[in-house]
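Example record

The entry below shows one chain as it appears in the dataset: sequence first, then C-alpha cells.
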Amino acid sequence: MACIVCKGSEVKKISEHYLECKGCGLVFLEKMPSQAELVSRYVSGQISPIRYYERTKVEDARTFVRRLKLIKEFCDGKYLLDIGCNIGTLLEEAIKMGFVARGIDVNFMCREYGKLKGLKIDHAMSDTLPYQHPFDVIVMNEVLEHLINPREYLMMLKSHMSNNGIIFITTPDAGSWLRGLFKNRWIPLKQDEHLYLFNRKNIIRLAEGVGLKVSFIGKSRRYRTFGNVYDKFREVFGINVSWLPFKKFQLNADLVGEMVVILRC
C-alpha cells in the first residue's frame, strides 16, 4: 500500500492495527474500512456519540471561542462551514461572534438535533458538499484523521473556498512528545475511527501536494474538566481511583498531542 503523502511503499508495523511510512512518518491503518462500514459506526454512535458532546458542551464552547478568535486573526470573512459539526456547539459560538455559519455531519441524527436548536446542519457524505457558493472559513475539528481519502477531500474543499478563504484543521500530531511517551498506548491510536495520523511535516506536504499553503501550524489545546480527563485515561489505561478531587475543575491543555493547521490557497 503506497503512502498517500509521499507515495513511498516502505512501511513498518507499529502496532496490531497500524503501519508507519518509513519515508514521511504517516501513521495509517493496515486494513481500511469501507465507506459504508465507517458511516454505520457514526450512525450507531460507536464513533463520536451525541451524548459525549452533550456532556462536554460547556468545555467545548470555551475551546471553540478560542479557536474562532484565532480564525479571525487569519480571515475576516463571515461565511463559515463546520465539517463534522456533531451537535453544533461551534456553530452556536460562531453565530454569536457574527459568522453566518452552517455545518454538515455524516450522522443524520446530528441534523435532527441541530434543527431543534435552530441550526443549519446538513447531511452529507465524505466526498461531496451540497453547496454551490464558496465559504470564507471551512472548519475541520478532529475530522481529517477520520477520512478514507483525506488528500481527495482537501482537493474538493479547495474548490469551495472563497478567494481569501481558509481551512482550519485540528488533528492529532503523530510527531508529538506525548506519542513518544505513550507509544502504542497513545490515545489517538483508535483503530475503529482514526484512519490516518499525521505529523507536522507530512501534513504540510499533503497540503502543498493539493495546491494549499500553510499559513499557521502550532499546538492545539482544548478545555476539559478533570473528570473528563480521568474518564478518558481510565478507558485507555485502566486507571481507577475510589475518590476524585476537583472533578469539575477545567483544564486548558494539550492532553493527547494535537496540532492546529490553517491552510489557504
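Notes for this example: The chain has a mean pLDDT of 92. Residues 34-264 form a domain with the Rossmann fold fold (CATH 3.40.50.150).
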